[in-house]
Amino acid sequence: MSPLAPSSPPPDPSREGANSPLGEAYGASSMQADATRLMTAAKNGDREAFDRLVESLRGQAFRLAVSLVGSREDAMELSQEAFLKTYRARASFRDGEPFLPWFHRILRNCCYSFLRKRGRLRKTSLSARAGQDEDEGDWEIADEGPAPHDAALADERAQLFWQAFRTLSARDREVLTLRHFQELSYQEIADTLSIPIGTVMSRLFHARRRLREALGGLLEEDPAATGSDSTP
Question: Which of the two residues, 130 and 92, has the higher pLDDT score?
């Protein structure tokens, strides 16, 4: 099986105590250190180090891209584009800077640019939707066609999950993916997104609530969905 392909139906981020089966943390401390070391070596001319960097991160990059753009084919191309842009911009990577937040911004910008060119990205106000005093705007994504994993998911519950997930905004998809698909800690998400940890907690709370609302009666069948996330 390709390292880019999910090996099982997605976990349910609306179940706040859920743990993702999708592999190592995108921003786990050891991965952060290794990625930064490899990028520093690549900046200094070690092409093999960059190849190892791509190999270690391409699955995680693909999963974030597919959560934003929907299509597996587009997500694969966009994650590859992000790595290409990263390599071309390697001289601008600052020594001592953590690599993963830097790469995350490149990947997210690739996805947003793709969606914007196709008229699928629309600025909206998160505060208007959630009733919160958020300073920054959010982006609505107009999804097209079947859910990203329809062909791979025979499980009806998993398909219903993706249908609900696709109704969420870009910000909600991003923070849920980082927390539940990539298993980042609150602090790692804060570092990746360059926001305070309190903002991470707030975004997760409201993203989970909106996902539960989108899922509707599906969660009522599962008492475990009311659990709490106790691992910061």
Answer: 92
How far apart CA 214 and CA 224 sit, in angstroms, is 17
Q: What's this model's pTM, rounded to 2 decimal places? A: 0.70
Instruction: Give the residue from 201, 142, 130, 198 showing the smallest Cα distance to 166.
Output: 142
Residue of 190, 188, 181, 209 whose CA lies nearest to 68: 181
141 three-state secondary structure = strand
Show the tokens assigned to 175.
């923070």
- Residue 38 phi/psi, 5-degree rounding, is -65, -40
Chain-centre distance for alpha carbon 54: 17
Write the DSSP symbol of residue 10: P
Q: Which of 53, 59, 1, 49 is nearest to 183 (CA)?
A: 59
Whole-angstrom CA distances from 197 to 6, 51, 155 are 29, 32, 35
Q: Which element (helix H / strand E) includes 121?
A: strand 121-124
Cβ atoms < 10 Å from Cβ of 228? 7
Confidence at 143, pLDDT banded by 50, 70, 90: low
Distance CA 168, CA 210 (A): 7
Distance CA 193, CA 204 (A): 13
* Mean pLDDT score, 134-142: 55
CA angle, residues 103, 109, 110, in degrees to nearest 5: 90
Q: Are 69 and 174 in contact (CB under 8 A)?
A: no
CA distances from 192 to 98, 103, 151, 159, 174 (A): 9, 9, 31, 29, 11
Architecture of domain 29-222: Orthogonal Bundle (1.10)
